[in-house]
Amino acid sequence: MAQEKPKAFIFTAIPDQDAARLQKRFGKVAQYLSNTLGVEVPYMPEMSYRDAVEQFKNNKVQLS
After folding, report:
1. Which residues are CB-neighbours of 52 under 8 A, at least 6 positions away?
2. 1-53 per-position pLDDT tens digit
3. DSSP conformation letters of 5-54
4. I want to staple 41 with a disulfide (CB 3.0 to 4.6 A). Which of 13, 31, 34, 52 is the partner?
5. pTM (2 decimals)?
């Protein structure tokens, strides 16, 4: 039986005022994790701490 390919591992971070800086920084983290884990690892920016927690709580992201 063929092994099922893992789903993406999505992560977010606590937002700050400079979303472009976060995207640049965490884009590098996403690439590293993707290469290391062998699965797609996108960074999902959030607009607020509350949004980040809700996404994690609802399993929309796996790391916050």
Report:
1. 12, 13, 14, 15, 46, 61, 64
2. 555 666 899 999 888 788 889 999 999 999 999 999 999 999 999 888 999 99
3. PPPP--B-----S-HHHHHHHHHHHHHHHHHHHSS---B---SSHHHHHH
4. 34
5. 0.76
